[in-house]
Amino acid sequence: MSAKSWLGRLRDGLAQSTAQLTGSITSALQRRRLDSEALEQLEEALIMADLGPTTAAKLAAELGQQRFEKDIAPEEVQEALADIIADILKPVAIPLKPADGNKPHVVLIAGVNGSGKTTTIGKFSKHFSEAGKSVVLAAGDTFRAAAIEQLQIWGERTNSPVITREAGADAAGLAFDALEQAQAKNADLLLIDTAGRLHNKADLMAELEKIVRVLKKRDESAPHDCVLVLDATTGQNAISQVETFEKVAPVTGLVVTKLDGSAKGGVLVALAEKFKLPVHAIGVGEGAEYLQPFAAKDFARSLVGLPEEA
Ligand SMILES: Nc1nc2c(ncn2[C@@H]2O[C@H](COP(=O)(O)OP(=O)(O)OP(=O)(O)O)[C@@H](O)[C@H]2O)c(=O)[nH]1
Ligand SMILES: [Mg+2]
User: Fold this and answer.
1) Cα gap 19→89, rounded to integer Å
2) Is the pLDDT of residue 39 over 60?
3) Minimum-distance ligand to the CA of 115?
4) Residues 114-136, mean pLDDT to the nearest whole number
5) 197 CA: nearest ligand 1 atom
6) What's the gap in Å between 257 CA and the centre of ligand 1?
7) Tag placement on the chain: N or C end, fewer CB within 10 Å?
8) How much distance in Å is there from the Cα of 8 to the middle of ligand 1?
9) pLDDT by residue (tens digit) across 167-178?
10) CA 208 to ligand 2 centroid distance, Å
11) What sign does the CA torsion over 13, 14, 20, 23 have?
């Protein structure tokens, strides 16, 4: 897929937040000055665009410190804003990278119901098998038979073996089995799916903790990555999801999905600013080709409504 079409999907997805934001920038600059009133309006607009109050305040303060000429155009503010946002995003734009020394490199995928975990595993499985890695998938969502089938379909599509147990089986036991089998196959990468869990359900969160504990019995260094999948359409709720999952699992990175259909893409900036966790990829569609490395500058420019840099 060309870079343009995924960026196009991202732009279309962000269009709603972007239109609102650019509209607010224009109206804040009606006096063509970035005075305190204009900065206040901008800060509000950034909160509306789901960047969160803390990040919005920080951005407005940074804008306020820049020396603009008196007769300022909205485009100049958009450019400055895009630069500041890109600076926040750049350090977290880090792709998932299995370490060669790990056989296999174990990646645990967690998140609330419907956030896009299984789809993301399918997409990663395609990406890494095409890159020449041998990938094994573990159907750790033993909760629902349909979840096991869903992963099996992805396994067939990407030619990756899928380790399963019957529905209702112990998820930690399945994870242990899967690691054992992936080791026996000398696989490069083991991607473990998990059941969606509401972050306020203590028993399910305890189960996630147990999966981590049991994996360590087989490989002390596992899981090597624990990726939290967040649905961008949940907006600011994504923040509390990170906080809660971090309490029970060693979260090492994020994937933010559904940015093709979200008016709340700005939450990604709030996440980056608050947690500084790597954002390994973003989802801009349901198909396997729609998982893209997270490109900080492109995202920042799209968000504030600026065209791609020439
Ligand atoms: N538009 C869009 N849809 C997505 C994206 N990622 C996942 N989906 C869709 O979101 C729905 C839920 O995705 P799943 O991968 O099943 O989510 P899950 O986290 O495994 O869900 P549970 O196992 O039920 O907790 C499916 O219909 C996916 O096709 C994305 O980036 N964009
Ligand atoms: Mg699932």
Assistant:
1) 21
2) yes
3) 1
4) 96
5) 25
6) 8
7) C
8) 20
9) 899 999 999 999
10) 14
11) negative
Which tokens belong to 205? 């969160």
> According to the model, what pLDDT value does residue 161 have?
97
Residue 191 backbone dihedrals phi, psi, to 5 degrees: -105, 120
User: What would the mean pLDDT of 217-231 be, rounded to a whole number?
Assistant: 97
Distance CA 286, CA 291 (A): 9
Closest ligand by atom to 229 CA: 1
Q: What separation in Å is there between the alpha carbon of 28 and the centre of ligand 2?
A: 43
Per-residue pLDDT, 199:
61
Edge-first strand order for the sheet with 225-231 is 162-163, 135-138, 189-192, 105-110, 225-231, 253-257, 279-283, 291-292
Q: Is the pLDDT of residue 263 over 80?
A: no
Q: What is the CA 306 to chain-centroid distance, rounded?
A: 22
Domains and CATH numbers, the chain: 3-92 (1.20.120), 105-295 (3.40.50.300)
Among 286, 291, 292, name the best residue to mutate to test ligand 1's pocket (greatest count of ligand atoms within 8 A of Cβ). 286
CA of 115 to the centre of ligand 1 (A): 6
Instruction: State the average pLDDT over residues 277-294.
Output: 92
CA-nearest residue, atom 10 of ligand 1: 116
Q: Find the mean pLDDT for residues 106-115.
A: 96
Query: What is d(CA 272, CA 282) in angstroms, rounded to the nearest whole number?
Result: 13
Percent of the chain with pLDDT over 70: 98
**Residue 81 predicted with pLDDT over 90:** yes
